[in-house]
Amino acid sequence: MSDTTQAVPDVLGIAESWTLAGRKAALATVIETWGSAPRPVGSHLVIDAEGNFEGSVSGGCVEGAVVSEAIDVITTGKPTTLEFGVADETAWRVGLSCGGRIRVYVEPIV
């Protein structure tokens, strides 16, 4: 039997190394889920000011939208909470293919 699991990046370690190197960054954390959300509460995505990122908050469903918001958070220094799901106004722009909903807290790393 082969092991098909993928290594999960140490997102918090990556965030620390980026900030120690002088890169401005933000941390996105799944804070709440409903239904069949693809990532559990506590999942992380770290994003730098150039839009580079590591980790996952939705298995690829909403990472692009989170990265865009994170760049604003880095610029303004103001955290924000995002909500994604198939039943809200963003359903036609970005949604979770599995049908769940998630809330993601995005904060600047200082």
From TrEMBL:
Q: Which domain of life is it from?
A: Bacteria
Q: Name one Pfam family in it.
A: XdhC_CoxI
Record InterPro entries: MoCofactor_Util/Proc (IPR052698), XdhC_CoxI (IPR003777)
Q: Which residues form the XdhC- CoxI domain?
A: 18-85
The molecule here is called XdhC- CoxI domain-containing protein
